[in-house]
Hints:
By secondary structure, this protein is an alpha/beta fold. The protein contains 15 helices and ten strands. The longest helix has 22 residues, at 334-355. Pyridoxal-5'-phosphate (PLP) is lined by residues 129-131, 134, 161-163, 214, 218-219, 247, 249-250, 275, 286.
Amino acid sequence: MTDVKSLVSDFLTIDDALTLDGETTKALQLKHLNRLRTLDGHAKYFTRAQGCTFIDENGDKHLDMIGAVGVVTVGNNNDFVWSCLQKCFDSKQFMMGAISYHNVAAALAHNLALLSPQGKLTKVGTATGGAEAIEGMIKMVKLATRNKPEKTHLLATLNAFHGKTSGAVSLGGKDKWRAFQQPTLANIDHIEYGSVAALEAALATGKYKAFVVEPIQGEGGIIVPPEGYLKTARALCDRYDTLLVLDEIQCGAARTGKFWCCEHDDIVPDCIVFAKGLSGGLVPFGGYLCTETLYDAAYGSLETCYHHTATYQENTLSAAAALGALQFILEHDLCGMAQRKGDLMMKRLREVQQRYPDVI
Length: 360
Ligand SMILES: Cc1ncc(COP(=O)(O)O)c(C=O)c1O
């Protein structure tokens, strides 16, 4: 072995990286990564994160009020999730699920199916993040409806956010993220979020393969739809032979008091897209859960079963983090905790609202 520094003198090893001083870190980041976004966001240098706390380079503690952007449902650097990753490391097994049998991803898929609404979404597709999971879902829907020539379009909602890859911004309902991306994906229509009338009028045309919607619009401003919206959407999608796809990337994984947000409405969608909190904020992960009928319609033939693959699909480390996060969420009743703390915060905020009605 030749020491890397004798080959590339300025090479930074992992030990160098983990002990870089603040000034060098900032200089390298601004030079090689996204300079403007970092400066515009007044980025801080957090040297540690644990539970609900970030500690910056000066040793000051900050309360994590955003779950590291809706990701750390189980807290920052959750010890249990790290221990699951450590066990995989110790096992030295072959990590790449895409081309072999793989116990951890298989076990995770089994768990996800068990936890799916009424246990009815039993097929799992994986990705390396939310937007890629949305892309996988779009491809699956198109493949599944390929023998229905009357189904030409996808339906989504205004103000929706589904990620920033090309397909995901096309599906999203914000012009801001579609700007400069033309041509976007064709044949996608958007209707007002929460409007049953708009949904029925659109679906009645009979042309939609799927209706894709967030149970709560996240990036759009935490918009909760009128009560019963999802239940009605389920009934309308059934009536007009349209798949119901829920983007639970932000609102799923126990954040609203049920494991899946749609469980508040007691419905079973055809597909749920997940990411973010599902792998505990440590390893990039995402994917979808769907019915066997939908999955088989798309991938149940030798002609189509290779139509959506990716190198890191069903990767063991991602699956282990997700499996650990699921176990932690269940064993610590994080659904119940979200419900209780949500109720408490809402109660207290309403009290503040009464005192300051002009402000809130
Ligand atoms: C509802 C929703 N869908 C999709 C995405 C995209 O996920 P990712 O950032 O992992 O690509 C996000 C991210 O904020 C989201 O909130």
